[in-house]
């Protein structure tokens, strides 16, 4: 994730992050790294929390321009809070994903930010969604190059699994999948996600899967790093897990 810079030599905004979310039996895990950079060259912060709570049991991950992403999540929080008051019930996860998608789409000429939305609701249980204001969507993964902005969304296709991930493309369509990854670090972990994600994993298995995926991406992507921020969302509540950099699993000599 990047902060905006007034330096004229920095052109465009790259995604510079690793974000992911995956469902398990009874819940969902959403997580990210914690590094913020300027222009993909200067690390401006090692402690950014990119996992943002937009409602009681709904969270989103941010990628792209930090300023844009924070502005969109702030607006989404307001919309969802107002919606819950009007309806006298907590919003659905698909409603939160739709709010983020609408905000991004209506401002697609000005925004350079992408999101993964995940949570639990009374209607469909655990769900995950991914979206970006200025992207296209392919059948399996998406790569976008726009104004020096690079964004990838990978959705693992697993047959006979109820759709649980909402991918939001430019036209406003919602596509369901059980797991998604995004940001520059995601390019390093396609194979791992394809090979290791399983439907109906236990909470511990899914948490380890997410931790391993983030560790692999952070070990190879120079603009992903810091600590791993993870949130486990179930019917009973929300649990925050922070894995320090020196406690992350290692898969090669670092």
UniProtKB/TrEMBL annotation:
Keywords: Cytoplasm, Hydrolase, Protease. Pfam families: Proteasome. The keyword Protein biosynthesis does not apply. GO terms for biological process: proteolysis involved in protein catabolic process. InterPro entries: Ntn_hydrolases_N, Proteasome_sua/b, Proteasome_suB-type. The keyword Transmembrane does not apply. This is Proteasome 20S subunit beta 12. One of its GO terms (molecular function) is peptidase activity. It comes from the Eukaryota. GO terms for cellular component: cytoplasm; proteasome core complex.
